[in-house]
């Protein structure tokens, strides 16, 4: 799993400067920061606001609007589990219950210091081969509680 | 290596999700061990997703398919001589003879699964760029007229006539115009955009370039959802190749006309599939829906005239230009002309992508092509058109795939996604989910959607728990009417569609004796 460098204002500034010429640069910048550090530190807000000539409120508003952007360092591994209708039809809710009951993994639970977190997403575009999950850019089809737990480096 | 045997292993994300990468690697390894020279081509998927990973071998008899192939099957395949089309339990025969493909009318998806998605030479060899070349010989107004005459309607869900949208942008006077592709395919049950972007990305690029030439736009964006990392990679590489080949850039195919194209990633917000919210997001803001008018065709991205079309709308255009508007309009029924890439998913035996002229019935798709449910249990409900689409009963499956026919039964075609549920589904839970999803994904601008969705979750919870059912059902129906009438966009306006269809067609699920204490309300 990717080990991210600690947040660093100077390298953040460089990333921001490299992209601020784009039209509507905020999302590309936020993605680039998150790719680099694993999250977007609140310290980025004034830096982006300054580079794009926006108010800090605008930048904060953008960051907080989108599900993707994290404002704290991520767990070591994130398993995105689809819980939309097509995967529901294939039992993803049973999978969620089994994960909790059999493996002690509670979906969307960021509390504690577990290495891996399973997060809910809605649709990964693999609706004929669900339940589906996305782990570090890799799509998993026909998932079950055991395979998801294995991806999490299952405890027990 | 001239006599190397060509073997196709899909690089489509769905195929990868069931092990295509391992299969490709094992084939390379086994080929070496057997001293067989092979050229492994990573093609798109043919759309027969239950057969993935589906490997094809090029032989004198045409391409022979094997599937679903697991890495552990590969050694046996070589022993059976699959490299020359040999007999094996997984052999499906010549691809072109497969009934599932033969029944389709693949116009947009003609190349998907056939070619190497990132080979521009392959693209050209399979009729690519003919539409753009034709477009460059026409005036902008003539291109727009051709699209109009084809009867093409927006494939994103709303079904607005594409030609009329293009004409509005064409006629607008502005120093800058934009072409924006809505590739925020967030509807559950839909994956055609993804498959096209991964399986034939040059087609989308060609379609957007034709749009740019038609209306005089010089800059385009593909707004892609972040849940599609494979499509992102494919598009970025295809755009780079197109640019190096002079298909994009300061002089499109030497015409002297400029068109620059860029992919932008979304950030996990379903609402960005709504075009005005998408534009806000492209501008770098919170994706709050805009009130219309002004329409984006006149004041779109950065306030400039903008064509916003779905992936499949753009992708249909090169075929229309190449073969003529009439040839396209000859497919279909009523006011739904051309073909529709249908996506069959959920609890179904043979799911995948089916491109057919409008007019085929849901039953033919789900039962004949899909083979019924994967679980083998009876079909109870079918959701058509994504999370905002209606749930239909097994009795309504005679309905044809047609914008108006579905609207006639208070359903919608949407982006052509079909999700099948067996008889274990609890439709009250599905209604609750529709509200829960809306509450999570609402942009929050209008009250009916922002507050209504949360109230909806609470109401369904009370109904499930058996609290004052008649009263709460009356409030639920009232809330649905309010959201339908007063929401700003389709998110709040259509969330009542799945809810009401569940309520009207599957009332027994709302009328069961309460089994459990009150579930947790939405946060």
Textual characterization of the structure:
Chain A has 156 residues and is an alpha+beta fold. Chain A has helices at 9-19, 26-37, 44-52, 56-65, 85-88, 92-103, 145-151; strands at residues 77-82, 116-121, 133-135, 138-140. In chain A, 42% of the residues lie in helices and 12% in strands. In chain A, strands 2-1-3-4 form a four-stranded mixed β-sheet, with no helix packed on it. In chain A, helix 3 packs across helix 4 (56-65). The longest helix of chain A is centred in the N-terminal third of the chain and has 12 residues, at 26-37. The relative contact order of chain A is 0.14. Chain B has 523 residues and is of the alpha/beta class. Helix content of chain B is 40%, strand content 15%. Chain B is built from 21 helices and 16 strands. In chain B, the strands form four sheets. Chain B has a five-stranded mixed β-sheet, covered by helices on one side. In chain B, helix 9 (192-199) packs across helix 10, helix 10 packs across helix 13 (311-323) and helix 19 (469-486) packs antiparallel against helix 21 (496-505). At the A-B interface, helix 2, helix 4, helix 5 and strand 4 of A face helix 1, strand 12, strand 16 and helix 17 of B.
State the order of secondary-structure elements of chain A, H for helix, E for strand: HHHHEHHEEEH
User: Major sheet of chain A: order of its strands?
Assistant: 2-1-3-4
Number of beta-strand segments of chain B: 16
Structural class of chain A: alpha+beta
Distance between the termini of chain A: 21 Å
- Output the number of helix runs of chain B: 21
Class per helix and strand makeup of chain B:
alpha/beta
Average pLDDT reading of chain B: 96
Nearest-integer average pLDDT of chain A: 94
């Amino acid at each position: 799993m990717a080990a991210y460098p600690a947040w660093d204002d100077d390298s953040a500034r460089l990333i921001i400067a490299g992209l601020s010429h784009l039209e509507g640069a905020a999302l590309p910048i936020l993605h680039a920061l998150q790719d680099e550090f694993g999250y977007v530190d609140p310290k980025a807000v004034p830096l982006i606001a300054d580079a794009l000539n926006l108010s800090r409120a605008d930048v904060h508003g953008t960051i907080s609007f989108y599900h993707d952007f994290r404002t704290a360092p991520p767990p070591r591994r994130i398993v995105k589990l689809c819980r939309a209708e097509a995967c529901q039809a294939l039992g993803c809710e049973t999978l969620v219950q089994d994960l909790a009951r059999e493996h002690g993994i509670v979906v969307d639970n960021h509390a504690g210091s577990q290495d891996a977190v399973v997060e809910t997403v809605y649709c990964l575009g693999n609706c004929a081969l669900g339940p589906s999950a996305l782990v570090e850019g890799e799509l998993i089809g026909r998932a079950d509680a055991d395979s998801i737990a294995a991806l999490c480096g299952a405890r027990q | 290596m001239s006599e190397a045997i060509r073997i196709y292993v899909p690089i489509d994300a769905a195929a990868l999700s069931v092990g295509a990468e391992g299969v490709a690697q094992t084939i390379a390894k086994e080929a070496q061990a057997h001293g067989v020279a092979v050229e492994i081509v990573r093609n798109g998927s043919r759309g027969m997703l239950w057969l993935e990973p589906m490997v094809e071998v090029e032989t004198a008899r045409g391409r022979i398919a094997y599937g679903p192939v697991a890495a552990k099957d590969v050694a046996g395949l070589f022993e059976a001589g699959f490299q020359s089309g040999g007999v094996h339990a997984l052999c499906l025969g010549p691809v072109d003879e497969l009934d599932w493909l033969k029944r389709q009318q693949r116009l947009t998806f003609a190349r998907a699964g056939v070619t190497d998605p990132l080979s521009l030479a392959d693209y050209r060899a399979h009729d690519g760029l003919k539409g753009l070349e034709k477009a460059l010989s026409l005036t902008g107004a003539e291109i727009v007229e051709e699209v109009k005459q084809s009867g093409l309607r927006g494939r994103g869900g709303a079904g607005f006539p594409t030609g009329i949208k293009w004409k509005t942008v064409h006629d607008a006077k502005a120093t800058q115009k934009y072409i924006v592709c809505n590739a925020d395919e967030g509807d559950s049950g839909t994956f055609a955009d993804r498959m096209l972007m991964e399986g034939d990305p040059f087609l989308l690029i060609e379609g957007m370039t034709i749009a740019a030439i038609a209306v005089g736009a010089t800059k385009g964006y593909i707004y892609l959802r972040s849940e599609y990392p494979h499509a992102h990679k494919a598009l970025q590489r295809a755009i780079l190749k197109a640019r190096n080949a002079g298909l994009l850039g300061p002089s499109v195919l030497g015409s002297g006309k400029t068109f620059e194209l860029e992919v932008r990633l979304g950030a996990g917000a379903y609402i960005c599939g709504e075009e005005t919210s998408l534009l806000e997001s492209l501008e770098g803001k919170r994706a709050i829906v805009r009130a219309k008018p002004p329409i984006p065709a006149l004041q779109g991205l950065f306030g400039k005239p903008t064509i916003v079309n779905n992936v499949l709308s753009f992708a249909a255009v090169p075929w229309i230009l190449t073969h003529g508007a009439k040839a396209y309009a000859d497919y279909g029924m009523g006011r739904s002309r051309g073909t529709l890439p249908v996506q069959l998913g959920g609890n179904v035996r043979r799911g995948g992508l089916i491109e057919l002229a409008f007019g085929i019935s849901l039953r033919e798709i789900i039962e004949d092509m899909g083979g019924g449910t994967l679980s083998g249990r009876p079909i109870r409900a079918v959701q058509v058109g994504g999370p905002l689409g209606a749930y239909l009963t097994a009795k309504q499956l005679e309905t044809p795939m047609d914008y108006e026919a579905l609207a006639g039964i208070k359903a919608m075609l949407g982006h052509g996604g079909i999700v099948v549920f067996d008889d274990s589904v609890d439709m009250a839970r599905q209604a609750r989910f529709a509200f829960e999803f809306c509450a999570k994904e609402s942009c929050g601008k209008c009250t009916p959607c922002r507050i209504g969705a949360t109230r909806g979750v609470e109401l369904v919870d009370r109904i499930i728990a058996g609290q004052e059912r008649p009263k709460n059902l009356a409030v639920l129906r009232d809330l649905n009417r309010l959201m339908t009438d007063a929401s700003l966009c389709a998110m709040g306006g259509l969330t009542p569609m799945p809810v009401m269809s569940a309520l009207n067609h599957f009332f027994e699920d709302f009328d069961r004796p309460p089994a459990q204490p009150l579930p947790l309300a939405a946060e």
